[in-house]
Specification:
The complex is a heterotrimer of chains A (about 250), B (about 425) and C (about 190).
Chain A lengths: L1 H22 L21 H13 L22 H9 L2 E5 L5 E5 L13 H7 L18 H9 L16 E2 L7 E2 L20 H16 L3 H30 L5
Antiparallel strand pairs in A: 1-2, 3-4
Helix pairs in contact in A: 2-6, 5-6
Chain B lengths: L11 H9 L2 H10 L2 E3 L8 H20 L9 H10 L4 H28 L8 H23 L4 H12 L8 H9 L6 H32 L15 E3 H26 L29 H9 L3 H16 L1 H4 L11 H21 L6 H27 L23 H4 L1 H5 L1
Helix pairs in contact in B: 3-5, 3-9, 3-10, 4-5, 5-6, 5-10, 6-7, 6-9, 11-12, 11-14, 11-15, 14-15
Chain C lengths: L4 H8 L1 H31 L5 H5 L3 E4 L8 E6 L2 E7 L2 H8 L23 E5 L22 E4 L6 E3 L4 E3 L11 E3 L4 E4 L1
Classes of the chains: A mainly alpha (about 250), B mainly alpha (about 425), C alpha+beta (about 190).
Amino acid sequence: MRITRVLALAAAIGAAALGTAIAEEEIHFPAQKWSFNGPFGTFDRASAQRGAQVYKEVCANCHSLKMAYYRDLGGIGMEPGAIAAIAASVSVPTIADDGSVAERPALPSDHFRSPFANEKAARSANGGALPPDLSVITKARDGGEDYLHALLLGYGDAPATMKMGDGMNYNKMFPGNQIGMPRPLSDGQVDYSDGTKATTEQMARDVVTFLSYIANPEMEARKRLGVKMVLFLVLMTGLSYAVKRKVWADVDH
Amino acid sequence: MAGLHKSDFANPVINWIDTRLPIFTMMQKEYGVFPTPKNFNYFWNFGALAMINLVIMIATGIFLAMNYTPHVSMAFDSVERIMRDVNYGWLLRYVHANGASMFFIVTYIHIFRGLYYGSYKAPRELLWMIGVVILLVMMATAFMGYVLPWGQMSYWGATVITNLFSAIPVVGEHVVTWLWGGFSVDNPTLNRFFSLHFLLPFVLVGVVFLHIAALHVTGSNNPLGIDVKSPQDTLPFHPYYTMKDSVGICVYLLVFAALVCFAPNLFMAAENYIPANPLVTPSEIVPEWYFLPFYAILRAVPSKLGGVLLMFGAIAVLFVLPWLDTSPVRSAKFRPIYRNLFWVLLIAVVTLGFVGAHRPEGIWVVLGRVATFYYFLHFLVILPVLGKLERPLPLPESISRPVTSGGGGPLPGGAAAKPMEKA
Amino acid sequence: MANSMPATADGQHGSDVTKRDFLKLVTGAGALVGAGALAWPLIDSMNPSADVLALSSTTVDLAPIQLGQAITVVWRGKPVFVRHRTPEEIKGAATVAQNTLADPALDSARVKKGAEQWLVVVGICTHLGCIPIGNKTTEARGDFGGWFCPCHGSQYDTSGRVRHGPAPANLAVPPYAFEGDTKIKIG
């Protein structure tokens, strides 16, 4: 009897979930194998560092990363000296001693410099579209890293039947298939210093790894803590259950 | 020594305090030797779990508040600063955010346990009603807390839910303007929500105290739903139930820790990682999962006022539940028809949850209406009528001597129900 | 009575009792460790955060500071005095008898060798945290020519050492290094 009811409940949930799946948008993107997947996953340092280069040379022309600091690059294995050099190659706005607006070299403690001074400047430079900030982008899109990876590779020629809007680009992964962002990556666009071949797929994978790190800089610490907590709590569950059994041993219930 | 409490604790310091303020005597009475039915199953853990959850929420919340800035131009960034810069800030925030989900999971199980075993029936009507108040305060707290990170869902959730009050005839618009402190959800709204979100958990502590005080007057219900008749039916709360609760707490923390550390954004809408934009509504507004059944009821009728009334009615009906259910038998174990309808109700509520997550189109409209209809039918029609028609199974004589089929001859339902009436 | 049940049972199974007690002890200790581990993140969240710690250095251009004047710069949210001392002030600071000092310290230990004209101290009175005055020559500098704390009257000399009043210690010297002749980096 009880089993039947549980089954009925499960069936109801299953049916509803199936309905969910059917009703969703038809865009499908393949689940990728990421270095940071799973409870023991970590960020592939080399990939994330290459991704930082892709961000710097390609994405940063339009997209800000304003929550992140240059010092965050230490979390993907860059040396303090290298970070300071990267920061120093960028100038950030400051107020000079005489009160005028000036620029100074950035420090590792500075936020990444945004490409545009404000939203209006960003829009006017991009045909009215606002390139979103990328600080938490992998958390801010359904599908996360898999979606962004697919999006970067989703460019192509629009079907002849499709009427494209002015200045819009065809992307089979973008909802509505018309995206303001022109195709950002093409083979060989950046020169990787570690000799990795800069295919579009490789660059997409690297930059998404980097952005995933920027969105979740705490991930590795979080998972390490998680493993410890789970082990500890499994032990405590066993212990407290044993004590409970002992305490209840004399009770007829 | 007139006026001093008579205490006999071995420890002189404890004794000195206790004679002047008998808190140790009280703890001993309410949590030490408190006679508790010996036949609880693990569903009786969930009250304690909810209390632990409340403590966790208050603790993390206080430390989050030290780093949060309730201003429209800084709230989103301050939450990100907590995630990135504050020591263990990510842990505090993820525990707090997922703690809301855990709180509702635990509380909903606690409520459905009460429904299954008839814990709302006399003499525990007031205990149950205080519980409904707790649910309401929890919902208000959770709603206002969700606004604080000032993401897209925060903003539009706040807009949509506060607009519910505009359905009130005549004064509705004024009420909404008053809630907002302006003509849209804006900085004054965020500020007052932060203030209330900080206050309400402490109100919750007070109401929880009343809930427990009322519980310790009537004593706990139990899976058989029959009254405690003799000391053989009970065990002292400590160590029996302190240990049983400890096992439950460990398992609960295990689930909680795994959620926080390995899937912290499982229950979070991606849209809420986009800063609030008062000029663009997200393509799909979905409340947090724990509000989905109510959201589905809201949308089940094509009338603004009707939907709002129905939604609040869904909770109001719980207030009067003790008088809607006319059956003198508490536990569904001995109510063959109610037992099945309980599962139908549960399926209806789960279905409403799924309906709430989808645009009201096609099959979802029909499903939503059928489930809403059943929800109210269950409480307003079935329960009052069923109590008169249903023939309960024979009730056991006492908790310590559960009746077995055959020997002794089962008592007819009416007679078996008698002891209940004195309760 | 339900109450008496454990007692009777304990009497019957002696070895069981020790086992149970040991288990209880381990479980209780585990619970304590767990509670402590839960409390630590809460406490640690009140320590300086990563962004605060990252702002740990400030560079100061010394060129604009006129002889006899001091400027105030901000380092870790605290005021730091950078003073351009006159030869007389240096001489006065260096020749004070140590036994007259409340907190004995050599002037040479408080400045960089070869750059004795530059005194860098945290501008917070060691008494109760007020900011002493005396950066400008026109301000009251007390009887010892350094700084004067308006809160409770502590006086510091031209090496930032306390000479009078309730302050228990000299003005602290922050870690700093010269980056060229007219530039220092504090922190």
